[in-house]
């Protein structure tokens, strides 16, 4: 699949990464604080953004690509149009890529419900209760302290991705019955995917 973009988002050479599927222990591991803001971190965030746009998804956290670190990327604004179906070629527009490092949420207020999904739990969607508004303190890829207030889909997405950094998945926020149902469904699905891969 090719993705082109209105803005030069990626240095040529950004790599699409494999997304880890539930259940995988890395998704249940608390991510470590990031301390070096080096070239490697910049490359990682570019690769994560590329992977997210390809999927496509609106957010992606470190553990979802097997990296147990406190980083997530998101974009809740972009449009993605297929411009060449045969070659799987897409055009992105209105991109607004955001990278959050070592985020801490505060001033969580209000209540909202939204039908969430997750790239690590494909084809499963359900209503999750979240806070309506929040403020997130974080560092950018240069290590500078930043702060952002959020509401709507941005707030929901930040809470979902931040949960990933603590090893929490959205299906764990549902009733026990639903969680068990989705968990078993994913175990079956993963076995099926593994079998398919072996048959190739
Ligand atoms: Ni997710």
Average of pLDDT: 91
How many β-strands, per DSSP?
10
Low-confidence stretches: none
Query: Which structural class do the helices and strands define?
Result: alpha+beta
Short characterization:
It contains 3 helices and 10 strands, in the order βαβββββββββαα.
Keywords:
three-stranded mixed sheet; alpha+beta; Peptide Deformylase; 10 strands; 32% strand; 200 residues; five-stranded antiparallel sheet; single chain; binds nickel (II) ion; 3 helices
What does this entry look like structurally?
The structure is a single chain. The protein has helices at 39-54, 152-165, 176-199; strands at 2-5, 59-61, 71-74, 79-84, 89-93, 98-109, 112-118, 121-130, 133-139, 145-150. The chain is α+β, with helices and mostly antiparallel strands and 200 residues long. It has a single domain (2-192), classed as Peptide deformylase (Peptide Deformylase, Alpha-Beta Complex). The strands form three sheets. A five-stranded antiparallel sheet has the order 2-3-6-9-10. It has a three-stranded mixed sheet with strand order 1-5-4, with no helix packed on it. Strand 7 (112-118) and strand 8 (121-130) form a beta hairpin. The longest helix is centred in the C-terminal third of the chain and has 24 residues, at 176-199. The chain is globular, with a radius of gyration of 17 Å. The mean pLDDT is 91. Nickel (II) ion (NI) binds next to helix 2.
